[in-house]
Amino acid sequence: MSAPDIFSIGVLSERSGVNIETIRYYERAGLLQKPARSPGGYRLYRTVDVTRLSFIRRARDLGFSLDEIRHLLDLADQKFRSCRRVHDIGLTHLTEVRAKIRDLRRMEGILATMVKACANGTMPTCPLLEVLASA
Amino acid sequence: MSAPDIFSIGVLSERSGVNIETIRYYERAGLLQKPARSPGGYRLYRTVDVTRLSFIRRARDLGFSLDEIRHLLDLADQKFRSCRRVHDIGLTHLTEVRAKIRDLRRMEGILATMVKACANGTMPTCPLLEVLASA
DNA sequence: TATTGAGTCTGGAGTTCCTACAGGGTGTAC
DNA sequence: GTACACCCTGTAGGAACTCCAGACTCAATA
Question: Which secondary structure element, helix H or strand E, spans residue A37, and what is its range?
Fold first, then answer.
């Protein structure tokens, strides 16, 4: 664990913002490859693991399930031989991502209006529910 | 259950896109008020419940926890007397919403590029991980 | 109006995605 | 060589659902 680009699970946790226990869980769940081990049995990681783990964390924050993230990781890993398959999976997620952006934009608009009104000392009414409720 | 604006949990489920079991779970968790009951004990809902439930579903899809959603519902319900409190809670969520939008737009860009390249028959390399991994 | 079949009820167990110990081993710094 | 922080496995817990059994309700139809 002395080489600068090889580090322990604690360091990985710190650099990726993912809990140590969660990292081990992702390994069990197959989202991370089983890492190399030190002679004493410690897991050994590299920079590429930080990247992968940070991605998983962000994607989770954005409401993607582990299964969806598995798909996205497969895309990134170039696991699909067929261009058609990359296209289809990419398009599915693109549609989902765009829908999420649209919803978040709506929420942003409402929240910004409320915060602004409050800053002026005016107690605002809140159309938050209605704006997301409509199809 | 004959009046047009009063309906059963099954109809509510259909109109809101939320599982029947999940609706009952939200009731137990205090996100939905306890509904009126028919003489035989069936839950009775109204249009306002569809709105509220649809909002919860959307917010869950966007990665908000039930606790965060409780806060947002409180905002919408005008539960806070103080403008300061509305301002603070609104601002907290606004910051979170904007961060999510930023991440999703990055994903959107990558996915769109990949889908486009694939449509041209070119197998693209995928910088998906890198784009979200960076702080 | 009696029946039938879809819908609903409660309570409890199972699933996913973590998170928190307990009890023990590892690594390194003095 | 012994502290002390770190890591190991395994198991148990929590959040947010999801499913099921066995019993009851309701509306439609014969």
Answer: strand A36-37
A vs B, Cβ pairs < 8 A, gives: 150
DSSP per position, B17-69: T--HHHHHHHHHHTSSPPPEE-TTS-EEB-HHHHHHHHHHHHHHHTT--HHHH
Give A2→chain B minimum CA distance, Å. 25
Which nucleotides in chain D lie less than 7 Å from some protein C-beta? 6-10, 15-20, 24-27
pLDDT in tens, A84-133: 878 888 888 999 999 999 999 999 999 999 888 888 777 777 788 887 76
Query: Is the shortest CB-to-strand distance from A4 to strand C under 7 Å?
Result: no
Contact A90 B130 (CB under 8 A): no
Query: Please, are residues A35 and A43 in contact by the beta-carbon 8 Å criterion?
Result: yes
The whole-number pLDDT of residue A129 equals 82
How far, CA to CA in Å, does A1 sit from each of A34, A45, A114?
Answer: 17, 9, 51
User: Which domains are seen in chain B, by residue range?
Assistant: 1-62 (1.10.1660.10)
Eight-class DSSP state of A44: E
DSSP reduced 3-state for A7: strand
Contacts of A93 in chain B (CB under 8 A): 107, 111
Through-space separation of residue A40 CA and nucleotide C28 C1' in angstroms? 14
Number of other residues whose CB lies within 10 A of the CB of residue A105: 15
Question: What would the two tokens of residue A31 be?
Answer: 């989202």
| B66: nearest nucleotide, CA–C1' criterion | D16
